[in-house]
Write a structure and sequence with these properties.
Layout lengths: L1 H13 L11 H9 L5 H34 L1 H4 L6 H7 L1 H17 L12 H17 L30 H7 L7 H46 L5 H28 L2 H12 L2 H5 L1 H5 L4 H33 L4 H43 L5 H12 L22
Helix pairs in contact: 1-3, 3-6, 3-15, 6-7, 7-15, 9-10, 9-15, 10-11, 11-14
Length: 411
């Protein structure tokens, strides 16, 4: 019963953006009291972190489990004899990154009960999560920067004068028209290029969950810090910037994938997913100003509309995946499911990481503003205004800066 209550509360909190409305359970209150955390805002934030991390463990664990199943059943694929010793490590770095991020989230959460409750120690939990996610973000990028010929045994690429101009579609098609006497050489070159493109695409797809999770998590973290600290303007502007960033990442990834696997369902699904984040840009005024009850209701409505676009996009993508992958092998279906679960787990965990960073930035920004209030900046800006007014070509009848009583009225 206690475990059911724990996961039910956690799931509800994952969908909430107004974190200041979250109330700790009786057990969580006891743990927070023992950790001497009495501030209501911090108590709400820390129990939200716990819930978010608990639910990120589930999808991340699926990626780890499938890796070890593949290791047991298909050891020749994990430890490929055609690769050099460090080459096997290199091609499996993305799987190792998933294991690292899973371990970091588990360690940052700790045990639900008992003395190993790391989630109540915000500084330690945040540090573990930060290092784990940084390492897991870097590792999948490494294979993409090392050419295939350096980690494959006895591989000699054919000589080719391939240039970036050859990326043109007509050039690629012309190269496939082999001349008499050059068939073998041309075939080797085309096959080598095909292998390079395939490896490059594979590296990109493996990095896709990490790439997608970055702006998606920043977007979610900004929204939740705005809900936790309603009068914070820093999170409001971060939310506005993160939306287009997320949309561009979705579109950039789709441009490549659609050419290989796409159809109308995938195209419309991607467009739905890309449109949703822009709603916060179009209605950015709601998030920037200090919210009253009417503003909060408008934000809730805006988030619901954004959720409709998001759900609609994912439904279309899932329908496309089912229709497309059912034609293939069951292993391909499982690979796609693992990719989705990995992306979901990364987004949940990264949201906590970015929320920690934004909360610290908001407090630091407030401290800086407090220090600036200790002395007047009027003379500093008045001198700049006077310098602008003395510039040639500036119309003296149209003051650029604020009108200072006694200076512009002739007295």
């Amino acid at each position: 019963m206690i475990i059911t209550e724990l996961w039910t509360h956690s799931l509800q909190r994952c969908f909430m953006w107004r974190l200041n409305l979250i109330e700790p359970t009786s057990h969580e209150s006891k743990v927070l009291d023992e950790a001497d955390i009495q501030n209501p805002t911090l108590r709400s934030y820390i129990v939200w972190r716990r819930s978010q991390m608990l639910w990120s463990i589930l999808p991340l664990s699926s990626s780890v489990v499938t890796f070890f199943i593949d290791l047991i059943r298909n050891a020749e694929d994990i430890l490929n004899p055609k690769l050099k010793g460090w080459g096997n490590l290199l091609v499996n770095l993305s799987s190792i990154a998933n294991i690292i991020i899973f371990i970091s989230v588990v360690l940052a959460t700790g045990m639900p009960y008992g003395k190993c409750r790391v989630w109540s120690n915000w500084r330690l939990s945040s540090k573990i999560l930060r290092y784990g996610f940084i390492i897991s973000f870097i590792l999948p990028m490494i294979p993409a920067f090392i050419p295939l010929k350096y980690y494959v045994k006895d591989l000699t690429p054919p000589e080719s004068n391939f240039a970036f101009s050859d990326l043109d579609l007509s050039t690629l098609l012309m190269e496939m028209e082999f001349g008499e006497g050059d068939i073998t050489k041309q075939q080797e070159i085309v096959q080598w290029k095909y292998l390079q493109w395939k490896i490059g695409l594979s590296n990109f797809v493996k990095f896709l969950p990490a790439l997608f999770s970055f702006p998606a998590a920043l977007f979610g973290a900004s929204l939740r810090i705005k809900g936790l600290l309603p009068k914070s303007t820093l999170s409001s502007w971060m939310l506005t910037v993160a939306g287009p960033f997320l949309s561009l990442v979705i579109l950039a990834a789709a441009m490549l994938i659609i050419q290989f696997y796409g159809n109308g369902l995938l195209t419309f699904g991607v467009l739905f997913l890309a449109v949703g984040p822009w709603l916060n840009v179009f209605r950015r005024g709601l998030y920037v100003k200090a919210p009253d009850e009417e503003t909060r209701k408008s934000i809730d409505c805006n988030q619901k509309v954004s959720l409709v676009f998001k759900l609609g996009g994912w439904i279309l993508v899932i329908i496309w995946a089912i229709a497309d992958y059912m034609k293939g092998d069951i292993s391909e279906i499982l690979e796609f499911v693992k990719l989705i679960l990995e992306a979901w787990g990364r987004v949940l965990g990264s949201t906590v990481l970015f929320a920690d960073v934004l909360l610290r930035m908001t407090i630091t920004n407030w401290k800086e503003e407090m220090s600036l209030r200790s002395y007047s900046m009027d003379k500093f800006y008045q001198s700049i205004d006077a310098g602008i007014m003395n510039m040639k070509g500036v119309d003296d009848d149209v003051p650029i800066g604020p009108v200072i009583p006694g200076e512009c009225d002739g007295h």
